[in-house]
Amino acid sequence: MNRKIKLSLIIILFGVNLSAQKQMELFPSELNIKPFVANFLEPKVGFMFMSGKNSLRLDIGNSKDFVHLVDGNKIISFGGDFFTFTKLRGETDFHFPVDAVDYLFGLNGSVKIIKADTECGVRVRLSHISAHFVDGHFDNYSGIWRDERAPRVYSREFIELTPFYSVNDLRVYASYSYLFHVVPKEIGKSIFQIGGEKFFNLPFADYLFPFIAYDLRLTKIGKYSGTNSLSAGIKIGKKDSGGISFMVDYFSGNNIHGEYFDYKEKYVAFGMNVDL
């Protein structure tokens, strides 16, 4: 029998067997594991204005599950991540020059187990990030790069493992990332992370959900240091899926943009996000 025919039969038989055991849904409307609120490396569509700074963060991105396999109270998913996070400045006449931009794309897989009052599971991501200065970082009048920071190569490929546990609208997680390739070399190979978020119900409205979230990330640039992100706000829409969130953020630690990876900053920011 032709080798291609044999391979096709094996694939078809495997698919039939899989369908007999699990319910398959292609391109589901919801993510199996929703983004972690205070983690800045999550798919977002929104912006943040830094108080007291001429700086704006703009997020344009998405994660999409390609397939869900449902087996009783267990959901297995496979999907992809594609998004950018951008640093802008504000100028007169409603101009926002782009200073720096970071790109992330990759694949993800997850398993979630749903019980009566709890959820638990794990998400795995295989991702690439690269960072770049843009024309807004160049001073046309002086002919030099702003703040004497010229473009440099920043790139990393990593695998990330994030288990979580959820009960009574409280979700906590821990995460470990291994950077199997990273430039520049002084960045450590391991990133450790913990965090969580809590949503609250209001007795007078079933579409308004106050929340608070926190994320701590430990990274090594010479030595390990912590990056703290604390967020509080209110979500309008569905608590576990689509909606719009308005929040206040406190951030302290390493700059999130790769071109500024060795720059520390601290700020309070106000923003919104269209939740996936």
Distance between the termini: 48 Å
Count of domains: 1
CATH topology: Outer membrane phospholipase (ompla), Chain C
What is the overall shape?
Answer: globular
Main sheet summary: 12 strands, antiparallel, barrel
**Which oligomerization state do the chains in this entry correspond to?**
single chain
Q: Encode the helix/strand succession as letters.
A: HEEEEEEEEEEEEEEE
Helix content: under 10%
Topology:
Layout: H1 3-21, E1 23-26, E2 45-50, E3 56-71, E4 74-88, E5 98-114, E6 118-133, E7 138-139, E8 144-145, E9 154-167, E10 170-183, E11 190-199, E12 208-221, E13 223-237, E14 243-254, E15 264-275
Antiparallel strand pairs: 1-3, 2-3, 2-15, 3-4, 4-5, 5-6, 6-9, 7-8, 9-10, 10-11, 11-12, 12-13, 13-14, 14-15
Could you characterize the architecture of this molecule?
By secondary structure, the chain is mainly beta. It is 7% helix and 61% strand. The strands form two sheets. Strands 2-3-4-5-6-9-10-11-12-13-14-15 form a twelve-stranded antiparallel barrel. Strands 7-8 form a two-stranded antiparallel ribbon. The longest helix is centred in the N-terminal third of the chain and has 19 residues, at 3-21. It is globular. Mean pLDDT is 89; it is low at 11-16.
Keyword list:
12-stranded antiparallel barrel, two-stranded antiparallel sheet, Outer membrane phospholipase (ompla), Chain C, 1 helix, mainly beta, 276 residues
